[in-house]
Design a protein that fits this description.
635 residues, alpha/beta, 3-stranded mixed sheet, 12 strands
Length: 635
């Protein structure tokens, strides 16, 4: 029955939900192994070969570099500083090498299997039918955008042929009454506008205990028993009907799969920084995603959204406990997705990643400041994984995913320390900052001479390794004329590619410092506030930017002074310029490109917008206009 606006305030909350179908979700014991008796086994695949083809080259390349570096540092013997430097080089370079090896494997797989689907060749009428719940947990989000995306997805599913049954649940944890009121009115509007067979439900919790994990657990324990699968979405998630059906088909045809993750593409970028992220993810993500899918195979990962999950497997295997904090208080597991994937795999369920399924989308922070603020929250959650890695029964690859997430943030302090050591000692012209202040300091090493040519060669080598995955991604675009055309043609693609490379070199040092700050904040116990992500393209004032980037600015100016004085290596000049210019670069990151109709950094989604995105924009605009002129439910 359609809901009119006048009737919203007279209906109790349970009327917005279907009949309850409870499903137990026990909390897992991380100190004891667990196996789900309902999880079927599966045959071994070529995953071990792909793992070997990825990790072995990374380890060999790192070993060769360390051998050459150790030989170069051996002049004058070894001290604590040399050992520290070797450890930092090994730590940072291995992960660079692993990224290159993953992209190389993906480059091969991209051309061999990029379009291959794996529903085992079953015709549509033989794919088992599933009841699939699309779950949209929200917290103080813009209701027009959330319900606009929901309407677009349900509208597509309503007209596409599928044997599955879909229902969409908006699960609100909103604390602000005015936003909650707007959610109710948007929900009522969709129930009135959508076809009667489009199942959309709404529930707002009285208390938002355990945040998103508690929100999802509440739905599972109340209604999860009525659904074979749940497709978890974020507030900014959008998926085409074809993508939703493809994930549902794949889960139905693979009884061993507990979770299948799609590869979301970034959309909606208006500012310079957002467009950089969007172009980078769309262009370079192909080989990395395919390579990751090949070597992780059935021990893949979960990114918290745009993934389909077998409901009973998740309920039985992935109930999250709290962690005992250093001060004795229980702490919520923040970045829950990696842990839930690991617990599913521990229980015997496969966790898969399918980048070949297209039509999965999400948005990205609009400015450098917003990106850094989100990174602080993610850093806190990923470093927490270091305490979960020892969990009994976890698969080795699941442990590696958690370690990789933590290392991705710890690398920034390592790079920063390496930068400081190099700035202090690596002039190579007979003078450096240490010898300047203490010419006969016996605790400092005898630094080998490094010519300008050698410095340039090292710089080229390091940047080549860092940028190699980008070039591999660009190769996949360039090798396909139809894809190049989708980017606006070869000339436009080349301009965008060069612009993104240049901008990434400029912004990388700033993000290094910001992530170092994030790690230090986490280390001292600072608890980040997990507020909704800012999605609107609004710039910050110069005062705010100066305060936010004061550390980078001071470090950059100090490096520039050292370089001008001949005490700091000239090869640090690009980094020094970036850090010294952090404030204007951050301001530039919020420049609105979309309003200027510039095609630069454009992606195929912009030049040929998919129907689901057009529908979502239409629904968003319709809700914004209609709700603006309607009375609030409390009036």
């Amino acid at each position: 029955m359609a809901l009119s606006m006048d009737s919203v305030k007279h209906i109790d909350m349970p009327a917005f939900m279907p009949a309850r179908a409870p499903l137990d979700m026990p909390v897992q014991n991380l100190r004891a192994s667990y196996s789900d008796g309902d999880a079927p086994g599966w045959r071994r695949t070529r995953a071990r070969l792909w793992k070997l083809a990825t990790f072995l080259p990374a380890m060999v390349t790192t070993a060769l570099l360390l051998t050459a570096f150790t030989d170069w540092l051996s002049t004058g013997g070894f001290g604590w500083l040399e050992y520290l430097l070797i450890a930092l080089v090994g730590l940072t370079f291995f992960w660079i090498s692993l990224s290159v090896a993953t992209a190389s494997l993906g480059l091969i797989g991209f051309f061999l299997t990029s379009n291959r689907m794996t529903t085992q060749g079953l015709p549509k009428n033989q794919i088992p039918t599933q009841n699939v719940a699309l779950l949209v947990p929200i917290y103080n989000e813009n209701p027009n955008d959330v319900f606009g995306n929901a309407a677009a997805m349900l509208s597509e599913l309503d007209v596409l042929p599928s044997q599955h049954n879909f229902s969409l649940f908006v699960l609100s944890d909103t604390r602000m009454d005015d936003i909650a009121d707007a959610e109710l009115r948007a929900f009522a509007r969709l129930r009135h506008k959508l076809p009667t067979d489009c199942n959309i439900f709404y529930r707002r919790r009285a208390t938002n205990s355990d945040r998103k994990t508690g929100n999802l657990a509440d739905w599972i324990e109340g209604w999860g028993g009525g659904y074979d699968a749940m497709l978890v979405l974020d507030a900014d998630s959008l998926m085409s009907g074809e993508a939703i059906i493809a994930l549902s088909d794949e889960l139905a045809c693979d009884p061993s799969a507990g979770l299948i993750q799609s590869a979301p593409e970034l959309i909606g970028a208006e500012t310079l920084f957002a467009r950089l992220q969007q172009f980078s993810g769309t262009t370079y993500g192909g080989p990395l995603s395919v390579g990751l899918a090949m070597w992780s195979n059935r021990e893949s990962n979960y990114w918290g959204h745009n993934a389909i999950i077998r409901t009973r497997a998740f309920a039985t295997s992935a109930g999250l406990p709290r962690l005992r904090g250093l001060r004795g208080a229980d702490r919520l597991i923040m970045s829950h997705d990696y842990v839930e994937a690991g617990l599913l795999r521990r229980a015997g369920w496969a966790v898969r990643f399918m980048p070949q399924i297209k039509g999965s989308f999400e948005e990205t922070p609009p400015t450098l400041v917003d990106y850094a603020l989100r990174d602080r929250r993610w850093c806190q959650g990923n470093l927490q994984h270091l305490r979960i890695i020892p969990t009994r029964g976890l698969h080795a690859v699941s442990r590696f995913h958690m370690l990789h997430g933590a290392i991705s943030y710890l690398l920034s302090p390592a790079w920063f320390a390496l930068l400081l050591v190099w700035a202090l000692l690596a002039n190579g012209e007979g003078e450096n900052l240490v010898s300047y202040f203490s010419d006969s300091n016996p605790t400092m090493p005898v630094w080998p001479h490094m010519s300008t040519v050698n410095s340039i060669l090292i710089l080229i080598f390091m940047y080549a390794m860092l940028l190699a995955p980008k070039f591999m991604g660009a190769m996949t675009v360039w090798a396909q004329p139809n894809v190049r055309k989708a980017y606006g043609g070869h000339r436009q693609f080349f301009i965008s590619f060069i612009a993104e490379i240049f901008a990434s070199v400029l912004y990388a040092p700033i993000m290094m410092v910001q992530q170092t700050v994030a790690v230090l904040r986490t280390a001292v116990g600072f608890r980040e506030q997990w507020e909704p992500q800012r999605r609107e393209a609004e710039s910050y004032s110069w005062q705010v930017l100066l305060k936010f980037h004061l550390l980078e600015t001071c470090i950059g100016i100090a490096l520039l002074v050292g370089i001008a004085s001949g005490l700091v290596s000239l090869w640090l000049l690009p980094i020094a310029i970036s850090l010294a210019g952090a404030v204007p670069l951050s301001a530039l990151s919020g420049l609105n490109f979309r309003s200027r109709n510039w095609p630069h950094l454009g992606t195929p989604i912009e030049f040929s917008t998919p129907q689901i995105i057009t529908q979502a924009k239409t629904w968003r605009a319709e809700l914004r206009d209609s709700l603006h002129h309607q009375p609030k439910a409390a009036e």
